[in-house]
Amino acid sequence: MLEIRSHLKKNDTVVILSGKEKGKTGKILKLLPKKNRIIVEKLQFIKRHTRPTNVNPQGGIVEKEGSIHVSNAALLCPRCNVAVRVRIESLDDKSKARICKKCDEAI
Ligand SMILES: [Zn+2]
Predict the structure, then answer these.
(1) DSSP one-letter code for 76
(2) Predicted confidence (pLDDT) per residue in 11-29, tens digit
(3) Which domain holds residue 25?
(4) Per-residue confidence at 46, pLDDT binned at 50, 70, 90?
(5) Cα–ligand 1 centroid distance for 58 (angstroms)
(6) Which of 14, 50, 61, 96 sits most deeply, having the most CB atoms within 10 A of its CB?
(7) pTM: predicted TM-score of the whole model, two decimal places
(8) What is the Cβ-side half-sphere exposure of residue 57, based on CA atoms within 13 angstroms?
C-alpha cells in the first residue's frame, strides 16, 4: 500500500474532516503509518464483541477507539484554533518544523 506523507505525530491534536465524527477534535494516541491511519483519543468508537475470559467471565461488548484515515484528519493550530495546512521548514539544526500556513507560527 502506498504510504501517504503525513505530518501528523503522536499527541498532536487533530480535527476530523469527514465521517460521523466530523468537526470533532482529539489527540492522536497512535499512528498506523503502514495503513495511513491514526487512532484519535475518544473518537470513532467501535464496539467489539469479546469472548468470555478469566478477567471478564461474562464476555460482552467493549468500546474501543477505531482508526481514522490520515486524509480525514487535519492538524489543529493551537493559535488559530482551527484545522490548518502546514508547510515543513528545515531548521538550522536540521530538524524540521511544521509551520501553520495561516498564522506562520510553528506548531
Ligand atoms: Zn495558526
Answers:
(1) B
(2) 999 999 998 889 999 999 9
(3) 13-76
(4) confident
(5) 49
(6) 14
(7) 0.79
(8) 0
